[in-house]
Automatic annotation (TrEMBL):
This is Glycine betaine ABC transporter substrate-binding protein. Residues 47-297 form the ABC-type glycine betaine transport system substrate-binding domain. It comes from Microbacterium gawkjiense. PROSITE patterns: PROKAR_LIPOPROTEIN (PS51257). Keywords: Cell membrane, Membrane, Signal, Transport. It is found in: Cell membrane. Its main location: membrane. The lineage of its organism: Bacteria, Bacillati, Actinomycetota, Actinomycetes, Micrococcales. The keyword GTP-binding does not apply.
């Protein structure tokens, strides 16, 4: 195994195999799959469970990137899919999930960190330009959130959002809508990211006016030609960093993994290409192939890249 620039990786010895429970039940869990572990034929360093929300594709792409890299240094990786952020943070705090591979702990998920943060370990910031937005297609001739109140009829009085438990939903409902006086003229429609994209796709095909909640980085911004509405009141919050979060004590239990993870950083172009390749070029069921292709095209994306 060739570990390019990877430092601090210890020799693989005998390690106990860990069995981790899923961090939610019922409707909270969309599914769970086992990745099968190290492909080197050596004993596993242990089992690490990655918890992520497949509909939030920033985390989907980094989850599969971490799966690839952790398996290559000798871990068995289990992928745990959930549908809401709350159960994911709870599972992380309880130790049922080991890593959340694309967290927004500074602003968007601050309420979850306030609740669970003393049982969560920050494994490092990997991207610095994350931002919550209110957006419209480029063909819509308004440029500011301030313009929404006078144009409620054009948008049918609806802002299409994502999951009810998302930090983006809370920020929109509790900060943006009251700040701009939209309480009486707009309804925030929440369901799922997929449902929001369906509405957006339909509106775009008909060149119909639509306003949605969005964020950066997100592949749909480019795919649908979305423009962020100006936010002069700062109601959607400032830009923040994305982090890898671990359950408390993660670095002590999995030092090789923690060393690798803290070396991962992505810029705008790298992150955009990773997400686009995983979500669009390859798609569901071909995530591992997408990661292989991305690593081949971006051999110097970050200092701790591990190759076979």
């Amino acid at each position: 195994m060739n570990k390019r620039h990877l430092t601090g990786i210890l020799a693989i010895g005998a390690a106990a195999s860990l069995t981790l429970a899923g961090c939610a039940t019922g409707n909270d869990v969309a599914g769970g799959t086992s990745a099968g572990g190290s492909n080197s034929g050596e004993e596993s360093l242990g089992t690490i469970t990655l918890g992520f929300l497949p509909s939030w594709t920033d985390g989907l792409s980094t989850a599969y990137l971490l799966e690839d890299q952790l398996e290559k240094i000798g871990y068995t990786v289990e992928m745990q899919e959930l549908t809401e952020a709350g159960p994911l943070y709870a599972g992380l705090a309880q130790g049922d999930v080991d890593i959340y591979p694309s967290a927004w702990p500074e602003l968007t998920h601050k309420s979850y960190m306030d609740q669970y943060g003393d049982k969560i370990e920050d494994l490092g910031e990997y991207y610095g330009g994350a931002k919550l937005t209110i957006a419209v297609p480029e063909y819509v001739d308004i440029d500011s959130i301030e313009d929404l109140e006078a144009n409620a009829d054009r948008f049918g009085g609806k802002i299409y959002g994502i999951e009810p438990g998302a930090g983006l939903t809370k920020q929109t409902q509790e900060s943006m809508i009251p700040a701009y006086g939209l309480d009486d003229s707009y309804q925030l429609v929440t369901s799922s990211t997929a449902a929001m994209l369906t509405e957006l796709d339909s509106a775009e095909a008909a060149q119909r006016d639509i306003v949605v909640t969005s964020w950066r980085p997100f592949w749909a911004n480019d795919r649908y030609g979305l423009k962020d509405l100006e936010d002069p009141k700062g109601a959607m919050g400032e830009a923040e960093a994305l982090h890898f979060l671990g359950t408390d004590g993660f670095a002590e239990e999995y030092p090789e993994a923690a060393e690798l993870i803290k070396g991962i950083t992505l810029d705008d172009e790298q992150y955009a290409s990773l997400e686009d390749m995983v979500v669009n070029e390859y798609g569901e069921g071909k995530e591992a192939e997408a990661i292989d292709a991305w690593l081949e095209e971006n051999p110097d994306a970050y200092d701790t890249i591990v190759t076979d």
